Every structure is written in structure tokens, then in C-alpha cells.
Amino acid sequence: MNTKLLEARRDLYKSMQEQCLAPLWESLHNLVPKQPAPPYAAALWRYQDILPHLLRAGELITAEEAVRRVLVLENPAMPGRSSITQSLYAGLQLILPGEVAPAHRHTQSALRFIVSGKGAYTAVNGERTTMHPGDFVLTPSWNWHDHGNPGVDGVAEPVVWLDGLDIPMVRFFDAGFAENGDQASQSVVRPEGHSFAAYGNNMAPVRTVHKERKELGSPVFSYPYARSREALHTLARNEDIDAWHGVKLRFINPQTGGAPMPTIGACMQLLPKGFSGLRHRGTDGTVYSVVEGHGSATIGGQRFAFAPRDTFVVPSWATVSFDAPEDVVLFSFSDRPVLEAMGLLREEFLPD
Amino acid sequence: MNTKLLEARRDLYKSMQEQCLAPLWESLHNLVPKQPAPPYAAALWRYQDILPHLLRAGELITAEEAVRRVLVLENPAMPGRSSITQSLYAGLQLILPGEVAPAHRHTQSALRFIVSGKGAYTAVNGERTTMHPGDFVLTPSWNWHDHGNPGVDGVAEPVVWLDGLDIPMVRFFDAGFAENGDQASQSVVRPEGHSFAAYGNNMAPVRTVHKERKELGSPVFSYPYARSREALHTLARNEDIDAWHGVKLRFINPQTGGAPMPTIGACMQLLPKGFSGLRHRGTDGTVYSVVEGHGSATIGGQRFAFAPRDTFVVPSWATVSFDAPEDVVLFSFSDRPVLEAMGLLREEFLPD
Amino acid sequence: MNTKLLEARRDLYKSMQEQCLAPLWESLHNLVPKQPAPPYAAALWRYQDILPHLLRAGELITAEEAVRRVLVLENPAMPGRSSITQSLYAGLQLILPGEVAPAHRHTQSALRFIVSGKGAYTAVNGERTTMHPGDFVLTPSWNWHDHGNPGVDGVAEPVVWLDGLDIPMVRFFDAGFAENGDQASQSVVRPEGHSFAAYGNNMAPVRTVHKERKELGSPVFSYPYARSREALHTLARNEDIDAWHGVKLRFINPQTGGAPMPTIGACMQLLPKGFSGLRHRGTDGTVYSVVEGHGSATIGGQRFAFAPRDTFVVPSWATVSFDAPEDVVLFSFSDRPVLEAMGLLREEFLPD
Amino acid sequence: MNTKLLEARRDLYKSMQEQCLAPLWESLHNLVPKQPAPPYAAALWRYQDILPHLLRAGELITAEEAVRRVLVLENPAMPGRSSITQSLYAGLQLILPGEVAPAHRHTQSALRFIVSGKGAYTAVNGERTTMHPGDFVLTPSWNWHDHGNPGVDGVAEPVVWLDGLDIPMVRFFDAGFAENGDQASQSVVRPEGHSFAAYGNNMAPVRTVHKERKELGSPVFSYPYARSREALHTLARNEDIDAWHGVKLRFINPQTGGAPMPTIGACMQLLPKGFSGLRHRGTDGTVYSVVEGHGSATIGGQRFAFAPRDTFVVPSWATVSFDAPEDVVLFSFSDRPVLEAMGLLREEFLPD
């Protein structure tokens, strides 16, 4: 290009900029890439490295002061963004015996996956559920919720869970609202187990006078590990093993058959001892929590050894495969239901 | 009307008849009634009256000969129609120890509700489920199914279940197909419990290579009474009692939240001791089977006392209310999902 | 079988009958047939044979007296049943200049397909639509509707349309309600064309305060032939010809993409000059009205020549194929959406 | 807090940072805001200010070189982000007589709203649609598309349209793929008007052999202004005026009744002469293009006067109201269908 033309363009760009106009032809290749090139990286957090910090935070930060005593798992390639993928937030929360996290609600959808300890509860809309390691608990969008750790059967111990939220999505779409309750804890309005009895057994209530549920979140807000674990092992015994996934179940909202919350999907999978899986990839960046067993994940060619309670993240379109020298159970969550709704989910299963 | 006009009309009608034409103005009031006036009646069959006939049929009719040893509950107002309502078929089937009912499939959807005895199984698509009293078992449209009674734990006893089918609907819409298998029983291709592990725990399988289920029937084909009973009692303890229904749960297809089969809906309800319900009515004629307890149903003003294992039918738009001097559990099924799909479901809950 | 056994069975049957019990083993083969064997027949009604009767009815039956001056097309194999298939009703209605058919509503869904004449209207919920030959007009379930023939542009002529209703279905499911309005005609509350402007152009209204439409029927209640005809010819010019159907379009409810009414589907198809179609069959018995052209339908091997305004019926599972020595346009309707909802639609396209 | 505690925390934070852990308690208030506080601003671009730059770009940038000669409307509060809201991209594209924009496809969904000039076309999957001012044209995700400006009726003129894309969403979810075709233009495989004939008239094709459309985008890819304008004026004559919206229609996918593309919704509204609307707000940040008339929008208390062809943006949760001293027609688009799918759409209509 000759100098004159270059100058003319520079003049144009400058004049355009004053009008808040930008030349697409200079940036199109970045805006419409050939394939995903996420700005975040694969990473693994060892529970044994995190635990000392969690315990130290337990000493330095009171529950009242902290509102939430959580260590945010920040993607190493996106420091300061409070995100583990571009669309998801993850953190490890510690609640000590006797502590209470006061009731609030927000448009952000949240999941709690119990990593360690017994005796804490989450309450959703006035109904508590006692949490055990491996349980998958929901606090869907705009539902009042609170937590506490009164202990169970006379024993109280520190409880740690993995928080998963859609905070970055809600921020991106500028659609976040929040509100604090006026009591430390919600009044208990229904006994524990009510929602599960009403919706958790492939049945649903028939009421004469009832407001139709308009919420998109699942009415079952606690999926006990006792059941998921048994289901996985039953299927494994039946040799229903997938070459990529092992035995994998997705949690559903029994009112729709779809994801338990509109923004976050979650799965539990068993890799039977000796499993060496094939590589696959998808556009849903995914966070994994190791429930049982030692093994490894190979992500984009890089091998990550994992142990129980570790957390790792697989970026969008990075290949992943698993090896399990012993029985391994993995919990995972991602933004998959949003990608499906947008028509943006793409998956590839490599033959070797 | 004068004689001449009457004659002229008679001539017209006669000439029309030859052309297969009929005068609407003579029949409109019948074709478009003010409200439902079903040609069938409320009725109750006492199990103690049926049982001797069932046992006698067990002597006179071999399993091989009979294909199905079933006493059809024919609505007293529609003899010879093999129907309990205009759209539904119901019958009580006896299967003796050691008997086998060979594999077949048909477009008719069927349910089995176990009334008495243990040790029999239903197999659907090569997977067996052992049946216990109170279990609700499906054989959805065009699924291979067979039955047998090998006994369980070394004990074999006669087993009786209530069959519910959409035979009259399929006949009315002229859409019935059927096919016999080439073996007495299906080969068992999956261990018992597989489908329930895969779909029954608020989870669903994730497979890399899978045909999407296109069937409208639920992948959970056995809903064990152990779970439904516990759910009902949990809700009753929580005092979640409806003035018309007591505690009522509908069985769902966990893939959709809708009815377990597209043509038949089913519910289980607990009327706690002392319950005296209000009257309601709906356009879905409904068949009830008494699971536990003695009580009474007042149908269109007529009182029917019932005992465990009795069957009764409530016609479309007849009022019904229940009284339970002791804890009562009722199973029921109707054509409700079809009425909903057609926009023809109407219900009324009377205030006293 | 020996005499003794036969007698024992006879005794059992007799005793069962008193209890309203019937032996399934004696009737199973009829209840679950190998394939559909409808009790009704293929038939064709020539408009030229019907017209004299219609006109004669116009003389002998006043509009006031008749409420509806309709000649019911009764299937020749089911006399007295007021049905053209087991599930559908069809009739030809005559409305003379100046006549009015008073407002009423019923749970039965109705369609009007205009066969001859101009200047009549149907009003649905207070909005009139002027009808032209080939127009497809709906009066969905429980909508107030009335008709009149005031003429148009100063010209008034007799108008004939084909009525299609789900009367037999509503009767079978015992779900019919009806109500007469207190005025001869509804008050006109919206100008003609309102609903089409609101819903007919691939757009839908956005209102701040609005009750969500809960009706299953289409908000577009008139589908003008001018548009359907042009669409068919455009596609035919583009050579988008199906070997079985020619060019075939189904009418949709633009709010769902599904059938215009939950119980009745309708289509319009163009068989271009020279078209000789292949045979197909389906479980939805179908009523056809000839809009344009002479041709023939071969139904279950029997050839029926047709001319404009003729009506014919193809039974469930009977093969049908079409021949068109000149451009032919056919309108058709069936119970297809109900069969789809029930999982009972089956189709077969024969290769020659 | 005492110095010692502060120091202890600083030590903890530092040590956490090395492990990619961040303290939630320091940032929670930002992550979960009380209500939306979007980082972008209300803004208006006058067409008369943009046009000179567009024409100058027409001189300096050839079509071949530019691939896309588009001026991106960058939100003034987010320079360098190529975004008009956080989730949407908008730009004005110029195509000169004789130019061709080569075929490509990408997962990004795009809309074209024609602002000025006649004679250009967009082709989607081998079918062209000639564009006129006010037409709304889609190129849904992963559909091949190209453009050209051959003129019409012997006249060729510069054509300008508004591009709306979900580029920021696809980037945020890391789900973008793109591919160039191997020809400058797609081969024309179907005549113009084919898709509209097949899907645009409240009808849909019935084909014997057809792949079910799995795409989420509308099969109608051109919504002509002739129809939308007439619909709006018909409803305005019927005085169906909303106090906030005037007469407003949303474009639908006639196969679902939902938005034309899964990520972008679009509307057209008429503000009749003299209309002075009430304030409303929603979580869907919205881009408007003025089709006809002069008027003003008051956004978050700030008044923006507008003229035909101007573009303006209303941020999430900012109030907006309109005044129309003459008939005004506005086109608008937003991320509303995604917010609905995520359960994040919230709206408020203020009473004065």
C-alpha cells in the first residue's frame, strides 16, 4: 500500500474514532476465529496444597466478617478475574463447627459439591438438607439460601465444599440482582427431606390449589452421593462402559429431563479400575472434582495426576482423556446447558 | 309442521341416505351435548368376589392356551366391549408358579399394578424386574415384553396384577399393530436394575455413541412401592394434605416430567386416617386399585365401600370424594395425558 | 377339548358375567390385531350429487330451525354414526344470503374449508373473517363463533363449506361441553384482519399487560387460499416435487410450529399436471376436499375419479396414490396431531 | 483491625496467590451486585455523521481487501472491545454496486437490517433474497452466506445495512468456529423466494424423505418490511396501542414461536403520531435502528433525539421511554432469548 493511502486511512480511522466507529476490516480475523482459542488454561489444584490456606483463613477470617470464607480458584491465565473458565466461578468454602452463613438470594445460580466433613447443612427456601461428602446440592437462581454447621449425631467437624457459580455469565449479561435476608438463618418451614419426597422418586405432587412452578431450577435440590454412587456401580457391573467417559451420568431436573439449573450442568462418572479412556473435546469448559481414587487426566497433551478432593479444569476445545489405575469417581460441572440453548455446543470424540 | 313439509323432508332424507348423507339438524343436540354424559357407569369389583374366578380360571385355562389368563373388568353399562371406561381396558391377571407368558409387542401401552403375591417378573426389552405388591410396572408401546413366575428366594406363589391398557383408544384410532416373538421368553440382555440405575435416580446416562431415545414411554419401567410409599408417608408427616386428594403423587417420566406413557397417566395417593375429602370431578374417567386400608368412595352420590385389592372406576365428570377411617393408599390410572394433549381436560373442585 | 372342560368353562363364564368379568383369552386376538382393520371404508362424495340435496335442504329447512343446515358425510360402512372416520366428523354446510348462524361455543374443535361461493363470514371471539373458496378457517375449542352471509361488494350468493370436527373423539373421551350465546351474532369487538396482522406474518405481539395465551388452537384462524396457492405454485416452479405428495404444505400454528388445532391437522397439496404419485399409507384416516382440477385417487387398490369440490376419505392404513392429468389442488385433514401425541402415528412410503 | 492481623492476612494472600487462590471475602460485593451496573453506556449514532465515513471507506477500502467493509459501532464506554453492549456487536456495512462479499460461515449468528439502498442480496445456503430498506434478514449460525450488489431493475446504488451479531457471546463462551468457502459466491441452488414459500405463510413443507431440521435458526431468513409495516399499521388502526411499546411485534421462528435465532431476538414497533410512552427497563441491553420518523428516546433520564437511519443503544436495566411527534417505526434487537433460556430476564414497567 502506498504511503498516501496509508495516511488517508489513518486520517479516516482517527476521525471515525471520535464518532465511536471502528474499522472491522482491521480486526475481523480476531473477532471470528477459525476455532476456539480460550484465554484461560488447563490447571489443577491439589487439595493438600489448598487445605493449609483454608485452615489459616479459618483462623484469620471470622464467619461474620467474611460472609463467605471461600478461596476462589482463579484460572492461572486470568488472574484477578475471579473465574476458573471465562463463564464459571469455582471456590472452596470452609465452614467451621457452630458457624452460620446468613440467608441471602441472588440471580446467580450456585452448586455446592461436598468435598470433606459432615454435619453442615444448606437450606433452600426454608428447607434444610444435611450434606455428606459426594452430595450435589443446588441453590438455584433467586432462591433464599443459607448454611450452617451444627454438627450431626453429636459430632461437629470442619466442612469443605466446592462452590460452582455462574457469576461471570451473569456479569457478562449484566443481569445480576442480590438481596440479604433480615435474619441470620431462614426459618425452617418444611422438614428435611420434603422436596426429595415430593420430587425425587420419579413422582411429582398433585395439588388442587397450587402455583405452577415457573422456576427453571430443579425442585430436587439435593442429590445424595449414596444414590449416585450406587447407580454408577450398578451400571459398571453391567459393563455399560463408554470408551471415552467410563460410566457417566448427568444430573437432571426431573420436571424436564434437562439440566438441574439453566446455566450449569453437572455429571458424576466412574472410571473403573484399569480404565484408559480415549480423547474427546467440547466447547464447554469443564471443572472436575475428584471424589474417589487416584488417576490422571491428560489435557491438551499435558498430564495431570490427581488425588481425591483435587480440582481441575479442562478448557473449551482442549482434548481430555482419563487413566484410572484404581476405581475413580469424578464430579464435573460446566456451562453446557447455555451452550445447548445457544446452539453453540460442539463435541468431538477422537478414535484413538 | 304441516304434513306436506314433513313428507318432503322424509323424501329428502331417503334420497340423502342413498348418498350416505345425514341431516345434521336432526342429531345436532346429541352430537354436541351440554356436558359429558358417559355411556358407562361407576362400579366396584371386590377382590374377594373376583379371586375364586381367577383361581378357577387357573385350573381350567393353561398358560400356554390362554396366552393371557386375565379376567377383563367390563363396565356393567357396556357389556361385551372389553372396556372399563370408553377409552381404557382393565383386567386382573393371574400367573401361577412356573408359568411363562411369551414375549410379544404391540402398539398398545400397558401398565401392571401388582395386587397380590411375589416372585413374578415382567421383562421389557430384555431386562427383567421382579414385582412386589404395590409396584407400578410399564410396558410402553411397541416394547417387547414377557412375564414369568419363577418365584423368589425359593418361594413361589400365585401372583395377581391389575392390567391397564389403552386398547379401546388404539382401536378407536385404528392404529393397532402387534407381533409375537420367536422365543417363549426374551433373552435377558441386561441385568435386573439396569434401567433404574440409568434413569431412576434423577440422573440420566451420558454416552458417546447412543441413539437418542425417540420413545414417548418412560425409560424407568418399574416404580417400586417401597419408594412411593415412603414418599407419601414423608409428605403426610409434613402435613402437606390436600382437601380433595390427601397426599397425591403422579408418576412421571423423568426425561420429560410428563406422564410415564403418552396415553395413560398414573398416581398413588395416601388418605391419612380420618381423612374426609371434598368432592371433585374431571373429564378423565379413572380406574382405582386399593393398595392399603378400608374406606369408601362416594361417586356421583353413590357410596362404594372398599377393601384392599378392590378395583373401582369413576366415570368422566362424575363427582368423587373419599373417606378413610384408617390409612388408605390408592393407585389410579386414567387417559389424562391424552385429554391434556387434546386440550380436553377439565376439572372442578367443589368447595364442600 | 373334552365336553367336561367345555362345560366347566361355560359355567365359569356365566358366573363371571354376573360379576362383570369377561375372559380375555376368548377375545385377545380381536383386541390386539396384527394391523389396523378399520370398520369404515374408502368413499367419495361427488359435489354434483350433493348439491341438489343441499339446495333442497335450503328450501325445506330454515336457518333458524336448523341451527346448522349441514349434510353429514356418513361413512357408508358406519351408517347412523355421524362419522366419516372413527374419529372425525365431516359435513357440507349451506348458508344462504342473509342468513345468520347464531353464536355458540363447544369443546369440539372445528374447521371450515370453503367449497363454493363468496360473501359469508365466520366470526371467532368477536372478529370476523370473510371467506373465499379455498380458505381454511378455524374455530378452535371453546371459542365463541358464529356465521353469516351478508354478501360482499353488493353481491350475495349461497355459500357452501366443508365442516370438519372432532365430534367422535370428544364423544369417545366423554369430554364435551357446549353453550349458546345470548345474542344471534357476537358483537364485533375487533376489525377484520386483526388476528392475522398480529400473528400471521411470522411475528407476534409484544404487550406489556397481557394474559398469556393458554389455548392450544392457533391464533391465526384464517389461512387465505391466495397465500397457500401462491406458496404451492412457487415451490412447484422450483421443482420441489415429492414422489408421493407432489408439493405438500401443512398448516401450522405459528406459536408452536405444530398443528393449528390439537386434535386436527390440515394440509394443502398441489399435484402438478402429469403427476403420477407413488403409494403411501398411514394410521391417520384422512378426509380430502378437491380444490382445483380433475384427477384420481387409488385407495386400497380402488380408483376414485374426482372433480373440484368432491370429498373423499382414505381409511387408516389403506394405501393411497394420486394421478393428476391436470394441475390438481387438494385440501386434507386428519387426526394426525392426536396420533403423534399418543405415539401412534405410523407411515409407510412404498417404493413403487 | 490490628496491624498483626492485617500482616497475617497479607502473608496468607501472598501465599494463596502463588497457588492461584483468591480471597472471596475481599471481592464478594463486586461479584454479586445488588442490581445491574453495566460497564457500557447509552449512546446514539447519527446516520448523517456516519455516512461520510462509510463513503470514504468505500473509496479507501476495496471489497476484496476488506472482506467486510463495516464501521463497528463501539460503545463509547468500552473502546477497543468491538461491542455495542457486553454481549452484542453492531456495525454499518456498505456494499457498492457490482461488489461481492465472498461466501463463508461461522458459528456466530448474524442479522442484517437494511438501512438504505436497493439492489443488493444476501444468499443463505444457496438461496438469495433481494433486500429492501426495512427488511430483516438472517444468517443463522453455521449457514453459508454471501452478499452482492448487482442492482435491480437496471439500477444499482450503494446499499447500507446494520449488522447485528453475537460475536461477544461466542467469544465469551469460547465456542467460535469459522470457515471460508472456495468460491467467491455460493452457487445458487434454489430460486429466490423458495424458503419463504415453504415456511413463511403459516405453513410448513411435508416431505417424504427429509432430514429433520436440527437448526435452531428460523427457516424463514427474510422478513420483508412490506409485511411488517402493514401489520403494524393494521394493529395501530385497531387502536391496539400499548402505553410503553406503542404497537410492537417480535419476529418469530414459525417452527417454534420463539426467537428467529437462539442468541438474538428482534422486534419492530410503531409509535403512532403523538405517542408519549411510559418508562420501562429490562436486563436485555437493546440496539435500535430508526426506520421511519423523527422522535426521541429518553434513556436513564438522558434525552436522545433521533432521525431515520440513526442507531442507538439502551443498556441493561436503564429506563427508556419514547416520544413520537410523528409516526415513528423502530427496529430493535437484543440478547433476550439467551436471557430467557438462562432464567435471567427481568423487566419492569413503570406506571408513570
Automatic annotation (TrEMBL), chains A, B, C, D:
InterPro entries: Cupin_2, GDO-like, Gentisate_dOase, RmlC-like_jellyroll, RmlC_Cupin_sf
Enzyme class: oxidoreductase
Pfam families referenced in this protein's UniProt entry, alphabetically: Cupin_2 (PF07883)
Single GO term (MF): gentisate 1,2-dioxygenase activity
Keyword field: Dioxygenase, Oxidoreductase
E.C. number(s) listed in UniProt: 1.13.11.4
Residue ranges constituting the Cupin type-2 domain according to the UniProt record: 92-152
Name of the featured protein: Gentisate 1,2-dioxygenase
Species in which this protein is naturally found: Pseudoduganella namucuonensis
